[in-house]
Automatic annotation (TrEMBL):
It comes from Candidatus Palibaumannia cicadellinicola. It comes from the Bacteria. Residues 4-63 form the Glutaredoxin domain. This is Glutaredoxin. Has a glutathione-disulfide oxidoreductase activity in the presence of NADPH and glutathione reductase. Reduces low molecular weight disulfides and proteins. It holds the Pfam family Glutaredoxin. Belongs to the glutaredoxin family. GO terms for molecular function: glutathione disulfide oxidoreductase activity; protein-disulfide reductase activity.
Length: 79
């Protein structure tokens, strides 16, 4: 089973889209909400190099954001 981690904010529409895709594919994921959590936000930036959400990792490998996740799905990478 793969480990999927996703840094999110509660009001982010791209986060909701990414979560919906993973849920639709029945892929469990760990959601790391960074709202008001400076330490988690800094961890996300250290790991990804980006300040925007979502930031997604699969088995510790950086995937990117929502558009990157959908691109991975389009080429069969989530199957």
């Amino acid at each position: 089973m793969v480990k999927i981690e996703m840094y999110t904010k509660l009001t982010c529409p791209y986060c909701h889209r990414a979560k919906a895709l993973l849920t639709c594919k029945n892929l469990p994921f760990q959601e790391i909400t960074i709202d008001g959590n400076i330490d988690m936000r800094e961890e996300m930036i250290q790991r990804s190099g980006y300040t925007t959400v979502p930031q997604i990792f699969i088995d510790g490998k950086y995937v990117g954001g929502c558009d990157d996740l959908y691109a991975l799905e389009a080429c069969g990478g989530l199957d």
